[in-house]
Amino acid sequence: MTGTATPAPRLIDIDGLPALFEALRGRGYTVVGPTVRDGAIVVAELASAAELPFGWGVETEAGRYRLRERSDTAAFGHSAGPQSWKTVLHPARAKLWSADRVTGSAGTSIVETGAAEPPRYALLGVRPCDVRAIGILDQVLTGGRHADPVYRGRRDGAFVIAVECTEPGATCFCTSMGGGPGADSGFDLALTELTDGGDHRFVVRTGTAAGAGVLADVPSRAADEATVRHAATAVAEAAGHMGRTMPTQGLPRLLADSRESPHWDDVASRCLTCGNCTMVCPTCFCTTTEDVTDLTGDHAERWRVWDSCFALDFSYLHGGSVRTSGQSRYRQWITHKLGTWHDQFGSSGCVGCGRCIAWCPAGIDITQEVSTLASMLEQAAADEDKP
Questions:
Q1: Do the domain assignments include residue 169?
Q2: Cα–Cα distance, 304 to 164 (Å, whole number)
Q3: 355/32 Cα distance (integer angstroms)
């Protein structure tokens, strides 16, 4: 058997980005991508390519995120911001239905209205770690018997344009988790941005027939071998310049064996149980429902909203909450994310984007906490071996 040949990479000049926008909008897509707003690079609906964050980068560290001006005009020269594509595909608030009590000649009846039909999204500038996160959410929210209708409605037909990383941030550790910095699958188009020598261009690879169709409407030219190698080298070098490293060998067993570790008390002394890490995480998916009515009681709505395992009521059962301490809630989050997620969904729940590190107000570093747990277990084993 012979498979379909992979299309050769193409080159798009910076002037081709507006044409890419027009090709997407002409197909009925609502384009969502990064833009500068409120002192951060956020994900938002874009009206044109001019709204991309040209010339802006970011500085990140544990508990720190700052915009910085770049020395070039890169549109995607930044690492992960406070929002992931989860905010588009799995929004923080989504109306499930509404109902009105209507009184007429036939008496009183209840009229229900379902959720509005979502637009078709084109996701522009998806980092490889977030491409992987979308794949994980696909497995969680559409892979079982009870698919999430909100996520499925927004995900179906979504067009994904990945942008490979050539400049990781200080909190990034996607290489450890197999989430980047290169994009191998899960995209319709994949861009590698190059700005060296004053020549701003993109190496473009197609991942689907839909991607090839869009690219055909964008002015491009064949990518020469030297430029393709240059782009691949830039991505490979980024893999060697990660700001963090996660010790991934045997993580599920490590966390299971650390259940009674005294280190959880140390984490609890720093953790505010604010839930920031779960809000910015591109794969945390937990939700709850809220029912609201107007003052007359004639109109009611049901909303699905994000929830967090750091909330006291998250584990509430009849008689009280199961996890009442900050220690137990942090342990639950990290153990599920890195350990028991494998049992449920066949992969880790972490993609190494580093958002939970940057946006933790206490500067708690998930890679450092795992390293400490591993060191404590090794020390305990060594102590047991002493005569």
A1: yes
A2: 33
A3: 20
Tell me how far apart the terminal alpha carbons of the chain are, to the nearest angstrom: 63
Between 38-42, 229-233, 268-272, 378-382, the lowest mean confidence (pLDDT) is in 378-382
What's the alpha-carbon Rg for the chain, to the nearest Å?
A: 23
What's the pLDDT score for residue 1? 39
Task: Name the pTM for this structure.
Answer: 0.92
**Angstrom distance (rounded) from CA 94 to CA 282:** 17
Average pLDDT over residues 233-237: 96
Assess whether 342 and 376 both reside in one domain: yes
CB burial readout 359-376, b (16+ within 10 A) else e:
bbeeebbbbebbebbbee
Q: Return the pLDDT at 143.
A: 85
pLDDT digits (tens, 9 = 90+) for 323-343: 999 999 999 999 999 999 999
217, 239, 261: which is the final residue of a domain?
239
Looking at the fold, whether 137 and 269 belong to one and the same domain comes out as no
Residue 301 lies in a domain: no
How far is 224 from 203, CA to CA, in rounded Å?
10
Confidence tier at 2 by pLDDT (50, 70, 90): very low
The parent domain of residue 36 ranges over: 10-94+119-239
Dist. CA 89–CA 96, nearest whole Å = 15
Q: Return all residues near 383 (Cβ < 8 A) that are at least 6 apart.
A: none
